Sequence to fold (1318 residues):
Amino acid sequence: MLRDYYQNYIRPLFKQPLLLLMVSLIMLSLITFIAYPLFKIFIVSFTSEGSFSLAGYQRVLSGGELFTSLVNSLVLAIIVATLSTVIAYFFAYTFAYIAVPFKKIFNGIAILPLISPPFVIALSAILLFGRGGFISEMIFGIENANIYGLHGLVLVQTLSFFPVGFLVLSGLLRSISPALEEASDNLGASRWETFKKVTLPLSIPGIANAYLLVFIQSMADFGNPMTIGGNYNTVAREIYLQAVGSYNMQAGAALAMLLLTITLVVFSIQKFWVGKKSYVTVTGKPTSDRKMIGKGKLRGFMIGTCYSLSATVMLFYLLVPVGSFIRLWGIDNSFTLDHYKFVFSIGQKAIVDTLQLSLIATPIGGLIAMIIAFLIVRKKFAGKKAMESVSMLSIAIPGTVIGISYILAFNAPPLAITGTALIIIAAFIIRSMPIGIRSGITALQQIDPSIEEASTNLGASGRKTFFAIVLPLIKPAFFSALIYTFVKSMTAMSAVIFLISARYNLITASILSQVESGRIGVASAYSTLLIIIMVISLLLLNFSVKFFSYERKAKKRMKKNKITTDSASISN
Amino acid sequence: MNSKSVSLKNITKEFTDDQGNKVKAVNDVNLTIEKGEFATLLGPSGCGKTTTLRMIAGFEELSYGDIYFGEQNVKDVAANKRDCTMVFQSYALFPHMSVYENIIYGLKIKKLSDSELDKRVEPVIEIMNLDVHRDKMPNQLSGGQQQRVALARALVMEPSVLLFDEPLSNLDAKLRVTMRDEIRRVQQKVGITAIYVTHDQSEAMSLSDKIVVMNEGRIEQIGSAMEIYQRPTSKFISDFIGSANFLPSKVSQVDSNQLKVIYSNNELLVSQKNAKEFKVGQQVEVVIRPESIHVSDEGDFEGKVVKSAFMGQTQEYELEFNGTILQAVVSNPSGGKIYAEGEKVAISFAQSSLHVVPSA
Amino acid sequence: MLKAYSFMMKLILIEGGFTLKKLAFIFMVLILGVVIVACGDSNGNEEATADQDNSNEQEKNNNEEEATEEQLEGSLTAYVGFQEDHAIAAVNQFEEDTGIDVDMIRMSAGEILARVRAEKNNPQADIWYGGPADTFVAAQQEDLLQPYISDVAVEGISEEFRDEDGYWTGVYLGPVGFASNQVFLDEHGLEAPTSWEDLLNPVYEDEIVMAHPASSGTAYTILYTVLEVLGKENEEAGWEYLDQLHPLVQQYTTSGAAPGRMVGMGEAAVGILFAHDIIKFQNEGYSDLVMTTPEDGTGFEIGSVSIIDGAPNPELAEAFIDWAAGPTAQEVGQQTDNFQNLTHHDAQQPEQAIDLDDLNLIESNPLRAGELRQEIIDKWDNEVNK
Fold:
């Protein structure tokens, strides 16, 4: 057994020095920037003045504001997850089964919230539904509208997170073989019966998946509660107030541990229990195209609902740029450039700093994600399971937990790096890495491993194979990891809000402070900048995925060949 | 070409499966392939043939044993330093490189000068008929063309040993035959040592100087196509190579090169080179190939037609013979008599076409 | 840097093939970039100390003039409690006046206190600029501050507005006021509240906003003021008042100024915050905002500045205090619409600022306020904000 393990997992490391180097470097970074901080937070939550103590947990669990925040977050997460899942299923079903004009646009809308700056929806909600809000006052004439609190949070989080559920569910519905439904149809079931007895039961794992993912997002959300939570306190916000506001690290750590436990448990359920229950079997044969529902009363209703919901999401995104040009929303609706003047003069440092740090994090993050994906998919080595689980689990660690754990871990020697760029860059990379790894893994799994073996077989070293064969083949995934890291870093807040220092200011922190002191116009101007960056990045991504794929190269060659053969035939 | 012989000495590959049990994918295999020889590892899926090939290429670590290319033990030589190239089942062409770029990939790594490179590449492109395709991308080629590129890419390296991992399994039947002949032609022309893995017996028989039949991680038999077909050493081989009928019998007499066996009161005489390896009273199986069964009105034994099917070139029968169902194939049936289901017939076997293997 | 970067990205993305050379180059640039950025702070500090050594030597030569000139180089780190625009304008002015670079981060006073406390063993900043004196006193009691008596302050600022040992120096005053929404008042036929009792009118249920004492210095000043004004004779009366006020409060905001905007927007009827913040919102165009002050007595903050104990650049920090105490620095606020009352005799008081003589100010005692700070906040947290 031991010899077996040595043969298959340890010996390869020593046979390939580069592999050993990569594995140890990555392990070291994962331990330093994920495992060690989490360990530290665990210790601190049980320590008071140097000795073991349960005081932190007692404070949280004995009722009071800390406990309320925990309960509040759970209630919020349950409501938001339920609503989002229902809406997401409705959307996904409509798009999978009904002929909807302009489908592509809606896919874009679904991606928006995934990379959007954290404040946009909440800011818009204030502009729309707050006092003097566009909808609340001008359309409905409600004067006492109060958007702050649970209902505001439910609205904002549902709009922000239902696309997460939509992506999960539309993937699932697409993979249900239409033959199953045709069979049911063929056996005499009505469409409703088919839905009830075939489609719905088949999609239950996906529904559970969507529910749990949204649940985690809602629990971990920081930006929305900060902006629109009002007196409805949530865990993520309370951790911040405890850690940054009153520097009560023990209570903050205890709360963070509880939050982390909840999200990790939910994530594990999602990954290991629901994930395995999927009924959808991949046969390898492409499923025949589903016949889309082209008419009927219900169709109109469903399309109408989806259109209006999408329009609402669009409205939320458009309103922020509009608001950035208005002097004082609801009070003095005149046009002004003052907010931008502020952003580009006084707020300029934050923009420059954020850009600089994000641009450094981008290539490192993208490359690390690809290397980890490659190691996980293709290599055998000791500690691979640990590497895989740590790097993937980090998707379930709420940003605020990362933030507070970094303060605790890196404030004192041996690694006193608070206040440096390094800590912010590390947070950027850790936060965006799981998605990059996932896209890398997906891309690699589509590539026949014997292609890399062929390269080795022809004499290429591991490094040569990675850079000459693997990386070019997963270029689209690599590029999307780059873009994602960049956008995510530009808009990062929940983790880095704990880490900003006098030397480095970040746009999101500036937005938060503007929101706090009530300068919605300036906050909107900053957010508009971020939206523009985000949209450009998305377009770049879309373009580049096409540009970098080798299919395109093949097409180009084909054209060239045609021309040369044509000219050859002419000369003949 | 600096072709080399390949020797496998006691090579073993152990895995631990999901339940934690130790599984030997390859179990103590010994084999020598001579310089310039075309050897085929043949066996059903899971028999260890591909693992063996991958160990030769260096993609899998050996648990025990040694591998020699010529005199050199290559056990600890890294995969990219081993002097053997491989043609993969999926061809494994680099999809982002043109045909030409694919072919020169390995030579570029060797840092050959441009003139040397041309000297090596052009003959191979010529041999493989790839000249018109050199600037195309792999996904613009047909399966057969891709196969030729993969072979060219391996050949151009002028390795000591050429490895093939079921290279024809993705092609349609007709192309498979063409490519098979092409591979054999090229191999003989360059005189290179080749090791070929397949589960298709006709491929193995048409290509190989030497067939190595594997089963459950072990070598069952090594021999030429004819040896393996006519003188299989086990029930497994006789069943796996071609089709065979088995008569469970008991040895009644052992001579120097023939055996007498009893099958339910019928005595059969079998010519057998290794007759001495059997003992009187031993349970054995008599192997009868369907084409060796003679069906007529008069003969040695009595049987009954259970099923009769006219196939054009052949007439296929199922015959009941003392409790055993025998498959029989009669060629060119139109010339002779055709028996219907239920008819009684006489069955006879040529002594030389019978063969005895130990009971499994 | 930018050029190298774009070249690098081009290598990664546009050029298909990777050679070892290109790769080595990419990694070198990456590592170099990280090192340069990461070491930015420490470099600055080293330069600063080097300069100080230099200047010390020159001081020995009794060449004081040159020495002071030499001091005006290097880099300071400051935690600033002003509003962001004021903070940045002030820092820019300082850099212009002295040539000393400043890295600055804006936080609420409570957050600064928490941060300075957290960094006690590894101080990152030199200066704490802005925020009520009582927070400074709280910090002083935990040995987080370094005393420095500035000649500028001694000459120009009256003793009641600065610490006698120089732990903090008051640079502006900010009285507590009420911000009310005129529309709301008109609808309910009310006058703007002019006493603390007025706020207990049931019509204000869920309509009052103030900041949270844990994070905001403003909010603590309000708590202290209420306890001083209403609990003058009987301490319990002050707490009773807070108990009664709590259910009427719609929201406790993180930052002290936020209630002004909420009232201006009509999201709440009355906000309790500093007068200068109310005036700032009025200036920004919140036309429905009316400001009143409690006639039964109002407290005020003494916005202060101090050197943080263990400051990496103590001499530059002293230069900063000298500057901040002076009239030029104090007048910066007006340029960005921040209208605090200024403490330096020679400073031009902003026209828009509230006239302190019109107010019924409680007796200022930052020392006492600072000593009681933690106790009052804890009690409020445990007994009022349940």
